[in-house]
């Protein structure tokens, strides 16, 4: 703010000539131009606009010559604000399509003010659910942070999408792994803008963000062995700053404990099996009247599992649903029922097998190999395997028991009809 403190004299002043490479631009509060007249007691605003592509601090001396008075000298110091990246995971994808890799980031840069991406939520959404892959709250990439991809079956893939928003100055960014950073030899960057590490892939590996712009950073977790996977990633910015964050993920092997069966399935202990070996043999009894039984199977893991039921004698026995997906942390109830009971009454027992399909072979422990075969149906893995997790022997009610039940039911109906006729008479 510049003010004429004189009571009588009009102040005439002019901005002194500056060098051509100046990075400052001025806006006068009265009119355009570098020559001004200011009446006694009046004031005007002088606005400095700084614009620079260099990350270095900038200094310049501004001289305003005043007619008949001393010049006004203003020392200006300026610097460009650094970029500030905030990352919020928005979703996890287990069924990942490799063919879309080269197209995923071409249109992902958007303005956060007008963005309608998947990160938008309704007021009722659970904040903790939105931030679930992070350990903690949304974290600036200018601080040490961790991006947790959680669990994935060994040999499987899991895609985590994270929205990065720049709340600071514009910047160009480049991702590099710790191994390449220390050896100064960039070998893990592909021509599709992907950063490849032994257990993780990230893209885009280099990008530019203006203020309040966002893009989707995609992280593909592909564990090749069980246990914790850790990878340190450096973010290099054109403001000569280097920050880092850690990628985390757990490789998990398949285990029988993934599934839990309802109590009406009784596990058999076979004498020929040793005590330390797993028995996946069960028995179930059909209800003598309905000739069916409900069986509940719970998936205690977080992985979606493809399943099918194999019926050894499908003329006598059926199950619904026969195949599908058993979602993680959920329970499905199956209806096991008798077909053509009159034709199958001589059979005491029929068998069902619950088979999990399309599993990565690397996720199957060695001690389970005797239960494993090549998968009949393969959706995601060319060498997928399937494993039989339950052999269910379904006992059919005897024909004698069924006849007795029918006679008792028929007798009850006759007795009810007799009482009804007596009341009417």
TrEMBL record:
Membrane-spanning ranges: none
GO BP terms: namely:
negative regulation of cell population proliferation
- MF terms (GO), sorted A to Z: tubulin binding
Region annotation (Disordered) ranges: 112-133
Q: What InterPro entries does its record include?
A: DLEC1
Gene Ontology CC annotations of this record: cilium; cytoplasm
Q: Where is the composition biased (Low complexity)?
A: 112-122
According to UniProt, the name of this protein is: Deleted in lung and esophageal cancer protein 1-like isoform X2
Species in which this protein is naturally found = Fopius arisanus
Tell me the lineage of the source organism. Answer: Eukaryota, Metazoa, Ecdysozoa, Arthropoda, Hexapoda
Q: Which gene encodes it?
A: LOC105269998
């Amino acid at each position: 703010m510049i003010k004429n403190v004189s009571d009588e004299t009009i102040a005439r002043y002019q901005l002194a000539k500056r060098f051509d490479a100046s990075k400052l631009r001025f806006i006068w509060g009265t009119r355009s131009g570098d020559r001004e007249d200011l009446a006694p007691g009046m004031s005007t605003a002088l606005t400095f606009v700084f614009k620079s592509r260099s990350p270095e601090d900038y200094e310049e001396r501004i001289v305003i010559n005043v007619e008949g008075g001393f010049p006004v000298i203003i020392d200006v110091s300026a610097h460009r604000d650094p970029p500030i990246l905030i990352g919020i995971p928005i979703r996890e994808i287990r069924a990942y399509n490799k063919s879309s890799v080269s197209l995923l980031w071409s249109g992902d840069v958007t303005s956060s003010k007008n963005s309608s991406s998947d990160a938008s939520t309704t007021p009722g959404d659970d904040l903790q659910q939105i931030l679930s892959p992070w350990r903690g709250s949304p974290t600036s990439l200018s601080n040490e942070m961790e991006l947790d991809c959680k669990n994935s079956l060994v040999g499987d893939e899991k895609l985590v999408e994270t929205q990065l928003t720049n709340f600071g100055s514009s910047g160009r960014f480049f991702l590099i792994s710790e191994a390449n950073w220390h050896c100064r030899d960039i070998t893990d960057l592909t021509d599709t803008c992907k950063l490849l590490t032994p257990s993780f892939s990230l893209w885009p590996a280099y990008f530019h963000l203006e203020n309040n712009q966002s893009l989707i950073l995609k992280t593909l977790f592909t564990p090749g062995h069980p246990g914790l996977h850790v990878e340190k990633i450096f973010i290099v910015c054109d403001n000569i700053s280097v920050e880092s964050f850690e990628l985390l993920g757990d490789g998990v092997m398949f285990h029988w404990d993934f599934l839990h069966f309802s109590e009406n399935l009784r596990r058999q202990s076979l004498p020929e099996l040793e005590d330390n070996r797993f028995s996946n043999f069960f028995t179930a009894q059909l209800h003598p009247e309905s000739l069916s039984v409900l069986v509940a199977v719970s998936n205690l893991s977080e992985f979606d599992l493809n399943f099918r039921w194999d019926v050894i004698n499908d003329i006598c026995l059926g199950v619904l649903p026969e195949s599908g997906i058993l979602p993680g942390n959920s329970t499905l109830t199956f209806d096991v029922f008798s077909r053509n009971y009159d034709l199958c009454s001589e059979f005491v027992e029929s068998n069902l097998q619950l088979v999990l399909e399309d599993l990565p072979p690397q996720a199957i422990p060695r001690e389970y190999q005797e239960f494993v075969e090549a998968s009949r149906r393969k959706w995601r893995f060319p060498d997928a395997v399937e494993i039989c997790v339950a052999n269910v022997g379904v006992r059919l009610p005897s024909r004698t028991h069924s006849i007795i039940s029918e006679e008792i039911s028929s007798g009850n109906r006759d007795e009810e009809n007799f009482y009804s006729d007596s009341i009417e008479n």
